[in-house]
Amino acid sequence: VSRTDLAAAIMSAQTKEPTEQQLIAQAYFDGELSATERADFEARMMSSTELAREVAELQRLHVLARRFAGPEPMDAEWRRLDQDPIQRAGSTLAYILLIASGAGLSIAAFAGLYLLEGVHPLVRLLLGLGLTGFLLLLALALRARLRTLPYDPYEEIER
Amino acid sequence: LIVVTTHTVPGREIVEVLGLVRGNTVRARHLGKDIAAMMKNLVGGEVTEYTKLLAESREQAFDRMLEEAHRLRADAIVGVRFTTSMIAAGAAEFLAYGTAVKLS
Q1: A78 touches chain B (CB under 8 A)
Q2: How far does the CA of residue B30 sit from the closest CA of chain A (Å)?
Q3: What is the ipTM of this complex?
Q4: In chain A, what residues touch B63 (CB-CB under 8 Å)?
């Protein structure tokens, strides 16, 4: 995260008048609440998405500020590479090919199960169930990751 | 909250030891990043995907340790250490631990 990004985040946080909820969240984050207030706040945070996001945002800023380090010469080159059309098009194409290959292999595995001759019906059924279970778990893990991403302040750490 | 790797805090006296505080995490990046890292492994240089993975893990473990010290109303954590271990390929475990104390 660049110096400018961090400055912009702090400026944006400072230009608005904080709400009461934000002030309590800040006090919670700074460890300024009493044990009872803390337990009460944590119970409310468990049931309030908005409050949980507020604390996650504070944590994100805190982590960013702590990791505030000067750029290294290589950083600029990494950024230029990120913007480079050949690099971007190449990696997009590579990811599309990998995802297509994964989806294709899954379909082929299902089809193969039912097209292969000489496979005992019970084995066919068990393999089909196992493959379905695997894909279901993968989909659920992806869903959980996407749902928890806004609460993960460590995603923006570079080094 | 003062966090130091030394066993004392210069200029302050430890008046109470609150106990061990620790935080750990195991994090991974997605398969796409593992593949990119594998490619960088072939050509050399910094594997930024894993640099980031370890940095994320270190900061999260550190924050969990701080959270535990906050709960104990500690003034400082002394003797802080970080350890890491291999859990699975492409995943990093980080453990941060130290002693929570009250200072004069």
Answers
A1: yes
A2: 10
A3: 0.79
A4: 59, 63
